[in-house]
Amino acid sequence: MPASRTSTATRRAAGVTEGPPPSVLLAVEQLRRQVPGGIGAYASGLLGGLAERSREGDPVDVTLLASRAPGRRADDPLAAFGKPVIASWLPGPLLTRAWDHGLRHAPPDFDIVHSVSLAAPTLRRSSPSRLVVTVHDVAWRRHPEATTPRGRRWHELALVRAREGGAALVVPSRLVAADLVAFGVDAGRITVVRGGADHLPDPDPAATDELLGRLGVSGEFLLSVGTLEPRKNMDRLVRAFHSVRPSLPAPWPLVIVGPAGWGPDPSTRQETDGIVFTGSVSGPVLAELYRRARAFAYVPLTEGYGLPPLEAMRVGTPSVVADEVPSVHDLGEEGPAPARIVDPLDVDDIAAGLAAVLTDDALRADLAARGSAHALTRTWGTAAREHIALWRSLQ
Fold it and tell me: Is the distance from CB of 30 to CB of 50 less than 8 angstroms?
């Protein structure tokens, strides 16, 4: 254990706040999941931003915490981040359950223990560490019908533990902050840190050509990205697209990228004419799909933030976005949104938005310019700097 790590924790316990940068144990269990999802993108983006801050002279001592690595330790994918890794001997599901019941605790001698999700380790009573938990959304409360009963129970209990345990809470939007205040969390414990849009790798045109050729897609298309589960509202998007497609100037297909989740699978619908499901794709292929798409559609029932619209808008793709996606238009923000905003519960409104963004050249140009400008303001370097500021304030 580095001497600076122990001495900083000891100094803070004694009430001394000056000293070296904080030592941070970052619990990144989501990166062990087969489908890391948006939380995995946040964890990866944050680590990339922290590396950028380190190169610019603002280093933080970060160690990663997760369950045991799949296969041999030498093959641990977390090693790619260039940080020390503390890997439990427990597999992911058992480690999360042990954290839930207080049977496993975070290792001592770190100033900050920060979990990138509600799957957070507990601290020993004697620990001088401060606990930070990122709460990405409370979607199970806003739309319980779009969450499994087991998922609702787990998330509710995890949120109660975070609230009652005194953790500092990081949220990605004012919308989530307001939800937590309504849940009884003191506003002073909440810090809003917006995610970046600069995490995708360089596009891979050749691999994208191969994918689209295999799927029979040529020319332009409408793109959507998201896990195939009820909250992402793909069924209404598909119905809206079918209603508007006959009136479009060309028979552009709807290409849907994302892994299967739970609930009815929209790819099994009988009416799938013009709908292409790709499943999961690599980062370089996703980046190229964003660049080639004529428009992008993202109409989930609710989001705590919503990275896909930022990814699309960053490359100038005009977008249709549901009204509860704070990465595009957050609670209390003034002025026009940089995307066409639609009601995710209204198939006709979604269809009207699709028709406008696919065919209205003036609107398309306006959204492309404003969307790109908006997305370019969201960087993981900025998010990392705001995380570092919070960690320092807790020393």
Answer: no
Task: Give the dihedral sign, CA 28/375/52/187.
Answer: negative
pLDDT, tens digit (0-9, with 9 covering 90-100), for 176-205: 999 999 999 999 999 999 999 999 999 999
Mean model confidence pLDDT for the chain: 90
Q: Residues 356-385: what's their mean pLDDT?
A: 97
DSSP 304-371: SS-HHHHHHHHTT--EEEETT-TTTS-TT--S--SSEEE-TT-HHHHHHHHHHHHH-HHHHHHHHHHH
Instruction: Give the separation between CA 297 and CA 308, rounded to whole angstroms.
Output: 9
pLDDT tens, position by position, 136-191:
999 999 999 888 899 999 999 999 999 998 899 999 999 999 999 999 999 999 99
* Domains delineated in the chain: 3-196+379-393 (3.40.50.2000), 205-376 (3.40.50.2000)
Q: Are 293 and 223 in contact (CB under 8 A)?
A: yes
Q: Measured between alpha carbons, how far is 52 from 59 in angstroms, rounded to an integer?
A: 9
The radius of gyration of the chain from alpha carbons, rounded to an integer in Å, stands at: 22
Token pair 């004419």: residue? 273
- Reported as a single tens digit per residue, the pLDDT across 86-142 is 999 999 889 999 999 989 999 988 999 999 999 999 998 888 999 999 999 999 999
The DSSP call for residue 262 is: S
3-class secondary-structure state, position 63: strand
Closest CA to 293 of 273, 322, 318: 318
pLDDT in tens, 243-254: 999 999 999 999
Task: Say if residues 155 and 133 touch (Cβ distance below 8 Å).
Answer: no
Query: pLDDT tens-digit profile of 85-95?
Result: 999 999 988 99
| pLDDT of res. 337 | 94
Distance CA 383, CA 305 (A): 13
Gap between the Cα atoms of 220 and 323, Å rounded: 26
Cβ–Cβ < 8 Å for 306, 284: no
At residue 256, φ and ψ (nearest 5 deg) are -110, 120
